């Protein structure tokens, strides 16, 4: 199986399969490369903090913060797949996100998992 089966690098698709499971049905792990991660830290600007504070008084979704978190997770995933690709993997198993809020610094988002080479059975 070639890595092109996972998207072939077309726009919006990755040549690295990323799953939250420990295996991929119909495939076997040929080689375990090891842990890979993608990390980003974002700070919130004062305007968004004030807006979020006001919105929290009346309730509802904090759309600006939601958009920022989606972008942050996407960036962490891009970095994860870049690291997996650089180490020769074609898949990442057991992918997870870890989010840590720093006191006054910002929010750290880490995507991590196990880089492997999988082949079709």
Automatic annotation (TrEMBL):
<comment type="similarity">
    <text>Belongs to the UPF0145 family.</text>
</comment>
<dbReference type="InterPro" id="IPR035439">
    <property type="entry name" value="UPF0145_dom_sf"/>
</dbReference>
<dbReference type="InterPro" id="IPR002765">
    <property type="entry name" value="UPF0145_YbjQ-like"/>
</dbReference>
<dbReference type="Pfam" id="PF01906">
    <property type="entry name" value="YbjQ_1"/>
</dbReference>
<protein>
    <recommendedName>
        <fullName>UPF0145 protein HNQ79_004508</fullName>
    </recommendedName>
</protein>
């Amino acid at each position: 199986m070639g890595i092109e089966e996972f998207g072939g690098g077309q726009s919006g698709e990755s040549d690295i399969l990323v799953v939250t499971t420990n295996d991929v049905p119909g495939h076997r792990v040929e080689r375990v490369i090891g842990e890979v991660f993608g990390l980003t830290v974002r700070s919130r600007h004062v305007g968004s903090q004030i807006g979020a504070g006001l919105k929290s008084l009346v309730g509802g979704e904090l759309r600006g913060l939601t958009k920022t978190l989606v972008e942050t997770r996407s960036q962490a995933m891009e970095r994860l797949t870049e690291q997996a690709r650089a180490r020769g993997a074609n898949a990442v198993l057991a992918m997870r996100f870890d989010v840590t809020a720093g006191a006054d610094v910002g929010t750290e988002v880490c995507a991590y998992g196990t880089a492997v080479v999988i082949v079709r059975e």
